[in-house]
């Protein structure tokens, strides 16, 4: 198994620079920030956080359930003439096939590609089993989607002695019980744990300890930072910013001038700092999802097919959160980055898939035909009326954090 202690030469050089008094000091644990009632001068709790991310989840479930698909390039969704790929197996990814890609493009890149229809009811059932495994090790679980979540294991409920051991135990349970693989990032904050989970994919673990955080972040491409999409990455490149070290080298004023509201996040993250807690019960104001397409969508048929896929994804999230809301919004970003939104509010609130589908399709139809290619499509349900159920609870039915054990090792 590969771990984060085995860094690249560039990271070793960053550590050497740090020890010599260079640009990469240890993460600062005192910051002008208020978290969980602490004053701005109090250091945050040293958390142990795991980000678990299933490997090619939809495709892996299909390969697990149908032996004939194993070892073959597979796409979930996208089989229709103008359909869009929802997920791709690792065998398909070798040919450049990826999610949100039009099926026709995927087939062109991989002529032997197999297509299967998505089975969201099966993926939801597997996700419930997955979260049952998480709950054995912590009650502080923040789901991000069906196949990934943050876990705060600072309390070490299972008594395994280290966050890495907990991550390995979880991955072992997933492999034995679900016959699937997962990758995990282990660190002291959410940003680094999430990035780390992608370092040794598939089926790997990557650990970044507190004394390694700033040096690790310094080596990251700037596009790995949250919110840095193609357009922002292009702007960064024009400013000579390619890596986390380049971001760190800028003043806060410079970042504010060029990146606005993202400046404070970039300033802190480039120093390995992220004090957000894992929240087991996040109060949502809206639930939605969007997809950016590698090839612009321009025909009515292509946009309708793409919308159906987004309806599937967003309704699954609505259903999982037991939510209902009064406003459905469609978001469209054109090839020239012009963005528009259209919304419709109703009473009584939307509480069935049929109602959500009807409103979503109506909003799209009102925009057709589009005047230019569409690169992003999204849907959101807002004005929510029911609170989100806790992702996981203890026997009392209340989300629990357990005692903090700052001695738990990484």
From TrEMBL:
Q: Name one GO biological process term.
A: DNA-templated DNA replication
Which CDD domains does UniProt cross-reference here?
PolY_Pol_IV_kappa
Q: Which UniProt keywords apply?
A: Cytoplasm, DNA damage, DNA repair, DNA replication, DNA-binding, DNA-directed DNA polymerase, Magnesium, Metal-binding, Mutator protein, Nucleotidyltransferase, Transferase
In the record, what lineage is assigned to the organism producing the protein? Bacteria, Pseudomonadati, Pseudomonadota, Gammaproteobacteria, Cellvibrionales
Cellular location of this protein?
Cytoplasm
User: Which reactions fall under this protein's catalytic activity?
Assistant: DNA(n) + a 2'-deoxyribonucleoside 5'-triphosphate = DNA(n+1) + diphosphate
Q: Which residues bind Mg(2+)?
A: 53, 147
Q: What is its EC number?
A: 2.7.7.7
User: DNA-binding: present as a keyword of the record?
Assistant: yes
The cofactors required by this protein are: Mg(2+)
Assembly and partners are described as: Monomer.
Q: What is this protein called?
A: DNA polymerase IV
The entry's function note states: Poorly processive, error-prone DNA polymerase involved in untargeted mutagenesis. Copies undamaged DNA at stalled replication forks, which arise in vivo from mismatched or misaligned primer ends. These misaligned primers can be extended by PolIV. Exhibits no 3'-5' exonuclease (proofreading) activity. May be involved in translesional synthesis, in conjunction with the beta clamp from PolIII.
Highest taxon above the source species = Bacteria
Substrate discrimination, annotated site positions: 58
A Gene Ontology molecular-function term?
magnesium ion binding
Q: Which Pfam families match?
A: IMS (PF00817), IMS_C (PF11799), IMS_HHH_1 (PF21999)
As for family, the record states:
Belongs to the DNA polymerase type-Y family.
In this chain, the stretch annotated as Disordered covers 386-410
Q: Corresponding gene?
A: dinB
